[in-house]
C-alpha cells in the first residue's frame, strides 16, 4: 500500500474532490470506466436484439460467443432479451455521460440477466461473467455521479413515436424471419396487421406450425409494445422542468447588474433571453447566463457584473456542469473574459472571430474608403426610401405590430435564429432602451393603408452610451443597399440619442479571411481561407466580414472557451443547435401554437397588419 504522505499535490486535490483551480468536483479515479461500460452495454444490447430477431443467429459461432453476455434464448426469455437489449442500448449513452439513473438501471438489469441465464440455460459460465461485470459496475459506482438532465413532457411524445417506429420495424423483422414455420403464405398486409395487433398483445392473422415459434412471436411483439407504453407513461408522469427559463426575479437581478456594469460587454443584454438559465455568484454581484444543449452547458459572452465577483460565478458554473456531467463551454467571450475563464476554470481558449464596433465620433462618410457606401446610400435615397431612428418606447402599438410582423415575414427560416447575439423578441415593455431603425417606401401597386416598412434594424442597449445590433432584416423585393442605408442613418443619429459606440455583426474567423488574401500568405493559411469561403455558401462567414468592413470598424476579438480539443466537435454541434442552424423539433402539424403567438396575430389584425396562416 502506498504511503499517503508521498501523494503528489494533484493526487491530494483529486482525493479532496477539487481540480487545480479549487472547483469542487465529484471524486473519480478511473475516467475511462464510463466510456468502456457504455460501449460494452451497447454491444451487449445489440447482441441481445440480434439473437432475438434472427433465428439463424442462434446456431452460429457468433452466438456461442454472445452466450457469455447477459441475455436468454428460451421462448419467453428471448422476448425478454429483446426488451432488455433495447433498454441497454438506450442506457449506453447515459452511462458514457456518467448518469446516476442509468447506472441504477444497469445495476438491476445485469443481475436479472445472470439469474435468467442460470435458471433457464444452466450456463454457469455465462452467469459468472455477468456477475463479474455487475461487480465491476458496483465497485466503480462513484464514476456515475451525474444528475439527470431536465426534460419537458414533449419528450414523452417524441419517445412514443420513436419507440413505436423502432418496435414496428423490429416486429416486421421478427414476423418475416419465421417464414418456414408459417401456415400458408402471408401477404405483407398480413404481416403488417400481425405486428400492429401484436404490439398491443392481441394475436394477428398469421399462425405458425410450431407452438414455440407462435409463443416467441407473441411475447416479442407484446414485450416491444409494453416497453413503448411504459417508457412513454414514465416520461409523461415524471416531474418536468424547463431546460432553460429566466424567471421574473432572476431577470430583475440581471437588469440591476446590467444597469451597473452593462457597459463592459456588448453581449451582456442578450443574457436577458428568456430561454436561458442563469447562475449568480455567492455575493450576487455577478451572473452567468447559459443554456444546456446536447449535453453542453453553453454560456455566451462574458459574465455579467463586477469583475471581482466573476470567479465566484464561474466556480458555481463549473460545479453545476460537473454535477450533471455536462461539457462546460463559453461562446463569444471577450479577451478579458477569456483570460478569467482560463485562469479560474482551467479551460482553454480559441479565437473564433471579431466583433465590429464603430465609434460614433470617428464615423464619417467622407474619404475614398467610404466612396462605395456613400454612392449606395445616395442611390437608395434617390429611389424614394426614407429612414426613421427611434427608441422602441416611442412607437405606437400599431407601429410595433407592423414592424414585428414585417420582421417575422422576412425571416429566412421558420425558426427564429440566435443565442449569443440575438434577443429573440421585439417591442417587449421591459426593453424600453432598445433602438429601432426602419426604412419606408410604399410598394408599387400597394393597397390603401398597406404598410410602407421595407427594412428593419433593432439594437439593444450596451450600457448607457452604446447599442448592439440584434436584428437586421429587409424585404427581399426591396432595392439592395437598404441595410447600408439603415446603418449609416443609425450612426448619424446616435449622437442625438446619447450613443457613442455601436456594435455591429460578429464576423467568424475574420482574421483568417483578412490575412489569407494578403500577399505572402502561406499555403496553410490560404487553404484555411479557401475552406471558409467554401462554407460561406451556406453560412454567412465571408459576406458578414465584408459587409462590416465597409464601415471601418474597430475589430474586437471574441473567443470560444472549452475544456479539451476532443470536446470541440460536440461544442460546435451544440452551438449550431443553440443558434438554430440545426433544428431538432416535432413536425409542424404536431406542435402546439403558443398562446402568445395567437394573441400576437390577433393584435396584428387589429393594427392593420396582414396575418399569415
Compact summary:
The chain is an alpha+beta fold and 613 residues long. The protein is built from 20 helices and twelve strands. Strands 1, 2, 3, 4, 5, 6, 7, 8, 9, 10, 11 and 12 form a twelve-stranded mixed β-sheet that branches.
Defining key terms:
613 residues, single chain, disordered N terminus, alpha+beta, 12-stranded mixed sheet
Separate helix tally: 20
Share of residues in helices: 40-55%
Radius of gyration: 30 Å
Mean pLDDT: 77
- Tell me about the biggest sheet? 12 strands, mixed
- Strand % is 5-15%
Structural class of the secondary elements? alpha+beta
Describe the overall structure.
With 613 residues, this protein is α+β, with helices and mostly antiparallel strands. 47% of the residues lie in helices and 14% in strands. The chain has 20 helices and 12 strands. It has helices at 9-16, 33-53, 61-66, 75-96, 100-121, 124-139, 154-176, 188-198, 211-237, 248-261, 310-324, 335-345, 371-382, 397-409, 482-494, 510-516, 523-535, 542-549, 568-578, 595-607; strands at residues 277-280, 286-293, 296-300, 304-305, 327-333, 348-359, 386-391, 435-440, 453-462, 466-474, 501-508, 554-562. Strands 1, 2, 3, 4, 5, 6, 7, 8, 9, 10, 11 and 12 form a 12-stranded mixed beta sheet that branches. A hairpin with a 5-residue loop joins β1 (277-280) and β2 (286-293). α4 packs parallel to α9 (211-237), α7 packs antiparallel against α9 (211-237) and α14 packs across α20 (595-607). 38% of the residues are buried.
Amino acid at each position: 500500500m502506498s504511503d499517503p504522505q508521498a501523494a503528489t499535490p494533484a493526487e491530494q486535490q483529486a482525493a479532496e474532490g477539487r481540480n487545480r483551480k479549487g472547483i469542487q468536483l465529484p471524486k473519480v479515479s478511473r475516467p475511462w470506466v464510463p466510456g468502456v461500460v457504455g460501449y460494452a452495454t451497447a454491444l451487449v444490447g445489440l447482441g441481445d436484439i440480434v439473437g432475438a430477431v434472427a433465428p439463424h443467429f442462434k446456431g452460429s459461432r457468433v452466438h456461442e460467443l454472445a452466450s457469455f453476455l447477459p441475455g436468454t434464448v428460451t421462448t419467453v426469455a428471448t422476448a425478454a432479451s429483446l426488451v432488455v437489449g433495447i433498454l441497454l442500448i438506450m442506457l449506453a449513452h447515459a452511462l458514457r455521460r456518467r448518469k446516476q439513473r442509468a447506472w441504477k438501471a444497469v445495476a438491476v438489469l445485469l443481475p436479472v440477466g445472470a439469474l435468467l441465464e442460470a435458471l433457464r440455460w444452466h450456463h454457469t459460465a455465462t452467469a459468472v461473467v455477468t456477475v463479474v461485470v455487475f461487480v465491476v459496475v458496483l465497485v466503480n459506482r462513484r464514476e456515475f455521479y451525474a444528475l439527470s438532465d431536465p426534460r419537458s413532457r414533449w419528450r414523452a411524445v417524441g419517445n412514443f413515436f420513436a419507440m413505436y417506429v423502432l418496435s414496428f420495424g423490429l416486429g416486421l423483422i421478427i414476423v418475416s424471419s419465421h417464414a418456414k414455420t408459417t401456415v400458408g403464405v402471408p401477404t405483407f398486409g398480413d404481416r403488417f396487421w400481425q405486428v400492429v395487433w401484436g404490439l398491443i398483445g392481441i394475436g394477428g392473422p398469421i399462425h405458425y406450425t410450431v407452438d414455440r415459434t407462435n409463443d416467441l412471436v407473441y411475447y416479442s411483439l407484446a414485450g416491444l409494445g409494453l416497453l413503448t407504453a411504459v417508457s412513454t407513461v414514465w416520461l409523461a408522469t415524471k416531474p418536468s422542468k424547463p431546460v432553460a427559463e429566466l424567471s421574473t426575479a432572476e431577470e430583475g437581478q440581471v437588469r440591476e447588474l446590467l444597469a451597473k456594469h452593462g457597459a463592459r460587454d456588448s453581449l451582456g443584454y442578450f443574457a436577458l433571453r428568456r430561454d436561458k438559465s442563469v447562475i449568480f455568484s455567492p455575493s450576487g454581484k455577478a451572473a452567468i447566463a447559459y443554456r444546456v444543449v446536447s449535453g453542453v452547458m453553453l454560456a455566451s459572452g462574458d459574465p455579467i457584473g463586477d469583475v471581482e465577483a466573476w470567479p465566484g460565478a464561474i466556480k458555481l458554473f463549473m460545479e453545476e456542469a460537473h454535477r450533471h456531467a455536462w461539457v462546460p463551454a463559453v461562446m463569444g467571450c471577450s479577451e478579458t473574459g477569456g483570460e478569467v475563464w482560463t485562469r479560474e476554470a482551467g479551460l482553454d481558449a480559441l479565437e473564433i472571430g471579431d466583433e465590429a464596433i464603430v465609434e460614433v465620433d470617428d464615423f464619417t462618410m467622407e474619404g475614398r474608403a467610404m466612396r462605395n457606401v456613400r454612392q449606395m446610400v445616395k442611390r437608395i435615397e434617390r429611389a424614394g426610401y426614407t429612414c426613421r431612428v427611434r427608441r422602441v418606447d416611442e412607437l405606437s402599438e400599431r407601429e410595433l405590430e407592423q414592424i414585428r410582423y414585417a420582421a417575422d415575414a422576412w425571416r429566412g427560416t421558420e425558426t427564429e435564429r440566435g443565442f449569443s447575439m440575438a434577443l429573440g423578441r421585439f417591442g417587449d415593455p421591459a426593453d424600453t432602451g432598445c433602438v429601432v431603425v426602419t426604412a419606408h417606401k410604399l410598394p408599387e401597386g400597394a393597397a390603401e393603408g398597406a404598410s410602407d416598412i421595407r427594412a428593419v434594424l433593432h439594437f439593444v442597449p450596451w450600457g448607457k452610451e452604446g447599442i448592439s445590433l440584434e436584428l437586421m432584416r429587409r424585404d427581399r423585393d426591396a432595392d439592395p443597399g437598404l441595410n447600408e442605408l439603415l446603418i449609416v442613418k443609425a450612426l448619424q443619429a446616435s449622437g442625438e440619442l446619447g450613443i457613442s459606440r455601436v456594435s455591429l455583426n460578429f464576423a467568424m474567423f475574420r482574421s483568417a479571411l483578412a490575412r489569407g488574401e494578403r500577399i505572402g500568405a502561406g499555403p496553410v493559411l490560404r487553404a484555411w481561407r479557401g475552406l471558409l469561403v467554401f462554407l460561406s455558401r451556406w453560412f454567412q462567414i465571408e459576406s458578414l466580414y465584408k459587409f462590416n468592413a465597409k464601415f471601418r470598424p474597430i475589430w474586437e476579438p471574441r473567443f470560444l472557451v472549452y475544456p479539451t480539443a476532443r470536446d470541440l466537435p460536440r461544442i460546435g454541434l451544440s452551438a449550431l443547435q443553440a443558434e438554430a442552424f440545426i433544428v431538432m423539433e416535432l413536425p409542424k402539424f404536431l406542435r402546439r401554437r403558443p398562446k402568445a403567438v395567437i394573441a400576437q396575430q390577433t393584435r396584428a389584425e387589429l393594427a392593420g397588419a396582414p396575418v399569415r396562416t
